[in-house]
Amino acid sequence: MAVTLKDVARLAGVSVKTVSNVVNGYAFVKPENRRRVEEALAATGYRPNLGARNLRRGRTGFLALMVPELNIPYFGELAGLVLKAAQKRGWSVLIEQTQGTRERERETLVSLGPHLVDGALVHPEALQAGDFHDAAGGIPLVMLGEHAVDVPIDRVAIDNVLAARTAVRHLAELGRRRIAAIGQNPARGTSEQRMAGYREALSEAGLSYVEELVAPAEKYHRAHGAAAMKALLDLPEPPDGVFCFNDLLAIGALRAVAERGLRVPHDVAIVGFDNNEESAFSLPALTTIAPDKAALAEAAIDLVCRRITGETDTPPQHVQTPFSLEVRESTRG
Amino acid sequence: MAVTLKDVARLAGVSVKTVSNVVNGYAFVKPENRRRVEEALAATGYRPNLGARNLRRGRTGFLALMVPELNIPYFGELAGLVLKAAQKRGWSVLIEQTQGTRERERETLVSLGPHLVDGALVHPEALQAGDFHDAAGGIPLVMLGEHAVDVPIDRVAIDNVLAARTAVRHLAELGRRRIAAIGQNPARGTSEQRMAGYREALSEAGLSYVEELVAPAEKYHRAHGAAAMKALLDLPEPPDGVFCFNDLLAIGALRAVAERGLRVPHDVAIVGFDNNEESAFSLPALTTIAPDKAALAEAAIDLVCRRITGETDTPPQHVQTPFSLEVRESTRG
DNA sequence: GTGAAAGCGCTAACAC
DNA sequence: GTGTTAGCGCTTTCAC
């Protein structure tokens, strides 16, 4: 059986209170007693029972991270950074996967709560505004990434409209005139914003918006990017530049182009979004929008922690984290 | 404040015991009472306080998963599957990242314990046998993947020697005669096993083991694969086939070959290991050893759960899960 | 079948 | 400064 406070107290010949004081770093303990307690602590190898401590404190000591799927590189990378940021501050993180379905997202939101975690970072894919009502039993929630729904909770994200515009402007500056977009999807929050940036950049460059150059994508996986690209290449007048709404779509597009015997960027230049680690090694390496994921993770953790402690109790805020355009072979050359 | 059992009991006009019985699905409750409790439950939106329940039960309700880094695709994918398998059985999973350093692995192992989690799946990279002594406060531990250290704890893994042999035999059957290996690293458990499989396949094919064709890799990332491949291509007699100890190394190797203006598989055929999702979309798509990751996750979760419940109390066992060779463009020509 | 009460390990009043 | 004690919310004997 595990060593309890009581065991240590008995061994040291003091009360549990004194042991508790030492364990919790309370300053005013008689040196003599402190020494004896510390000895007993070492001798028994005591480790506090977090469950009991938190039950008493009304805390759980855990944070939750809700993401669609960890096998999607963006989320794997983000989760890694969130874990790191949380660990630095002494929090443990529970990861919940939703597969990006509204139902699972809603369930997860409800299952989260004060009894399980003290706060949560959520990256919803399909949640509607109403789903947030009274969700998670009132614990602090921070939303990751931009979303179509407008709910009054904290958010941390990059400026998706500006990022998309930057990507498309880059293609335009390369002299591309028929610039396509892959990833339109009304169900996704970011799609709307990236579409807006796409259109802004087009008009900025004096290019007109062409319906047939906008390829929808049901999901943002590699295979969907390949399929969408194939369709674009089948057009009577195929595009000479493509902005993909994420790197996975772009990787798929790269393959579709290669399978047609065409060359990137010679025949068609491609830009992605997310800067997955794999994108620096694709052939050709992918030009992409690189969100500062570490900054995003830090900001989100920081915010949720401050909400939990009550350090911050301003109205919900929207934190913007930086991004950059990473120019690589797929638009160079 | 959250609704407690007592609140529900008061509202329903019964004792906490009865409510507890209903909540826990105890069969023998007077229908009348059951109805009233269920109404009160619904009216209050009661959710049990897991912390309290587990404190009482002497459980935490959590499992831990220790991995090097989630941004490495293999671990991202594996973690996703572990989470899924755990969720099916009603467990929450705490993920701990170690960056693959022995110190962090040791710390993590110690910090895990009965007060935090009820059991753990660990994928160590650098741990030594002695580090396991009395680790994790005696909770059930299941090791993921093969390792050099021989400690008496449960393990779930594929047969790495056989898998490596299969990969190299495939290259030999293609007629390749100078088959290189990338990834030798004495500090890594699996390296030894994959080297063994490599040698077995060579001698099986009547090829001799050539020292210079074995390229070490400090880490198993893409950049290291590229560097190792460059060195191999600089050899007076470069290889015509390469077995990389994981897909990331292989992806790096692909790039190194392309940068030299050579072609895969025409000039050199390449086989990887892990079957990361990205490997089906690289150019060319990568032939690779595909461990059944879902089976691995399921087996590991199953085992740790059975240890926790005491359902299984046999000596530590070694479970082997299946793998296959996924033949793609990088060896098909 | 159901209620009363003890107690899981810990912290925080409150006395001394 | 330190000990005693009352719970945090839950499960679980043990009576009834």
From TrEMBL, chains A, B:
Signal peptide: none annotated. It comes from the Bacteria. It holds the Pfam family Peripla_BP_3. InterPro entries: HTH_LacI, LacI/GalR-like_sensor, Lambda_DNA-bd_dom_sf, Peripla_BP_I. PROSITE patterns: HTH_LACI_1 (PS00356), HTH_LACI_2 (PS50932). CDD domains: HTH_LacI, PBP1_LacI_sugar_binding-like. Residues 3-57 form the HTH lacI-type domain. SMART domains: HTH_LACI. One of its GO terms (molecular function) is DNA binding. The keyword Transcription applies. Keywords: DNA-binding, Transcription, Transcription regulation. This is LacI family DNA-binding transcriptional regulator.
